[in-house]
Write a structure and sequence with these properties.
By secondary structure, the protein is mainly alpha-helical. The chain has one domain (2-170). The chain has helices spanning 2-9, 42-53, 81-109, 116-128, 139-148, 152-165, 170-178; strands spanning 23-25, 32-35, 61-66, 72-76, 110-111. The strands form 2 sheets. Strands 1-2-5 form a 3-stranded antiparallel sheet. It is elongated and about 80 Å long.
Length: 187
């Protein structure tokens, strides 16, 4: 990982300074990785796309006001208890799916040197209990998913970090706001 951080602390080939890669330490495994930030809109974009592919349940319609001709005008009933349960379940699923996509994206953005000895031992242990890894599963994925993330706490901490680090910093927000300030003192 030192090589990765040295490259990140160096300079971009086009002459731009490259900021240090943010580090994240898994609280239970104690392993530190480099993890690139996500844009502030990334989580929202993922959620919007998941909602587009799988829309929320439709609001049930009920008979409302009676018309002059004796028919009833249909109107939405968002207070229907069954609908409320469906919506709650929908948003819970959406949250889980969004977190899963954020995690998949994080796996792609993590920079880490794989501890090959640890991976080999883990593969041997899994094979010994009759659950070998698929030959297509690469060592980097095994290292991150099963060694770096050694507990549900490690996973929860990573997801919390991703969400928190994807938000703009106070300094960035202030710099953005300052960019709109003009001298209006009569110049």
């Amino acid at each position: 990982m030192t090589d990765i951080l040295e490259k990140a602390n160096g300079h971009h080939p086009k002459g731009r300074a490259v900021p240090a890669l943010p580090e994240f330490t898994f609280p239970d495994s104690g392993i530190t990785v480099g993890l690139r930030r996500f844009a502030p809109d990334t989580q929202d974009q993922i959620t919007r796309e998941l909602m587009r592919k799988n829309p929320a349940p439709p609001v049930p319609m009920v008979e409302g006001i009676e018309r002059a001709d004796g028919t009833f005008e249909m109107e939405p009933n968002p207070a229907d208890p069954d609908y409320q349960k469906e919506v709650m379940a929908y948003f819970q699923r959406l949250s889980v799916e969004t977190n899963a996509k954020m995690f998949d994206l994080a796996l792609r953005r993590i920079e880490v040197e794989v501890d090959q000895d640890a991976v080999d031992r883990y593969k041997e242990d899994m094979a010994a209990i009759g659950i070998p890894f698929d030959a297509e599963t690469d060592d980097r994925t095994i290292y991150i998913r099963h060694i770096c993330i050694s507990s549900t706490y490690d996973l929860s901490a990573l997801l919390a970090y991703l969400t928190r680090r994807s938000l703009p910093t106070e300094v960035a927000v202030q710099e953005y706001l300052d960019s709109f300030q003009r001298d209006v003192s009569g110049a």
